[in-house]
């Protein structure tokens, strides 16, 4: 499917996969403008040599008020978005680490991880509705993870992260039903990038089999291709980096 609209939007743009998607869209001649939303300032020197004039960087914290304010700034471009990538995600931080057993579960970690992985994407789907609805075919890919699949969970552990991604998948499924009814030009994808070399996966990379740790550039190219071939079928697709469907 060709991108008829001319704008792309990357939410959570400073992360490994977020910044790779920004670069991918900056290099896409079918995209005229790339709006990037991040809690960070535009990192100086990143995307250098690319079509910088296409880039609009919006800084915002992820409270609903600031997110709504960001969407107001995008309002003049309503109806022109053909690509949206929601790239937020948290697995570990200085204060939290993925749980290995029941005793490791804390309400603080659950709340923090659910906020970034589930609540923030859900709020974007709500707030963006009015600027995505229209005539321009628009593909919205949200970074999920295979560990959010109930049927794929054979190892256990990582309670908060797994649960936040399973909940994200349900938010996306429910939103896809409503978007199909109220904004037929929008298609939602829950995307699993595969283990990719970013800050999020860094502490867990030593056990990744050779050849299975992807670069962000590779995954961004794969996702761009998947978005290019997506159909407006009113369904949520749960796809990995290779375009293969993941069982729920
Ligand atoms: N890397 C992997 O191996 C892998 C595997 C499966 C799934 N994923 C998923 O891919 C997505 C991107 O991850 P990544 O690997 O690019 O990680 P990353 O480099 O650590 O980037 C994390 C992203 O999450 C945002 N973020 C961080 N803390 C947040 C918070 N408290 N509230 C809201 N947003 C927050 C950041 O946005 P700012 O721009 O505001 O900093 C940043 O874009 C995540 O959803 C992750 O679960 C990654």
Keywords, separated by commas or semicolons:
248 residues; alpha/beta; Rossmann fold; seven-stranded parallel β-sheet; 5 helices; 7 strands; 35% helix; binds NADP nicotinamide-adenine-dinucleotide phosphate
Could you describe the 3D structure shown?
- The protein has 248 residues and is of the alpha/beta class.
- The chain has five helices and seven strands, in the order E-H-E-E-H-E-H-E-H-E-H-E.
- Strand 1, helix 1 (16-26) and strand 2 (33-38) form a beta-alpha-beta unit.
- Bound molecules: NADP nicotinamide-adenine-dinucleotide phosphate.
- NADP nicotinamide-adenine-dinucleotide phosphate is lined by residues 12-18, 38-40, 62, 87-90, 116, 120, 143, 145, 192-193, 195-196, 198-201.
